[in-house]
Amino acid sequence: MHFDPVVKQQFAQLTANYGLTVAQAFKLFANQSIKTGVLPLSFDWQKPIENNELSIDNLNSKCQILK
User: Which GO terms describe its biological process (predicted)?
Assistant: First the structure.
């Protein structure tokens, strides 16, 4: 299988974070797909909340109002 070297490197890093090689990740993906009859993909992920400090400050101030 051939794909963009940058994508390959990024995917290798991602799989390494899970203690897997690229080959192991593909094998898991293939086996899970065959077992379930569907592709184990989710397209409903949410973007991380940006400005966490601002969000925490807002929550803290609202908690103070409730006290």
Answer: regulation of DNA-templated transcription
